[in-house]
Amino acid sequence: MAVVLLEELIALGIRRFVTMGCAGVPSNGTGPAVPMGGVVLANRALIYEGTSPHYTPHDRVSYPDDASVKSLSELLTAHGIDHRVGA
After folding, report:
1. Which residues, given as ranges, of the chain have pLDDT below 70?
2. Considering the domain boundaries, does residue 15 fall inside one?
3. 43-to-5, 7, 36, 67, 84 alpha-carbon distances in Å
4. Residue 54 belongs to what domain range?
5. pLDDT tens digit string along 6-15?
């Protein structure tokens, strides 16, 4: 269903997207690297599923726009939401 929505938005002329999701708790080897329920702004993402190569270059890693990550980080900070930038 996500691909159908993406296709419809592209057809409407939208070219930039912000996605949200959830993941398990990342570990640094000695314990959680991020507290449970913590917010992480990804500064890169591994492409390993079948859909992304149809929309992006055939790289194995996708990088967001630095200015967008900075703006989102500033917004979260302004609202008192603890977060980390990383992958």
Report:
1. 1, 24-26, 53, 55-58
2. no
3. 24, 24, 19, 11, 10
4. 37-87
5. 889 999 999 8
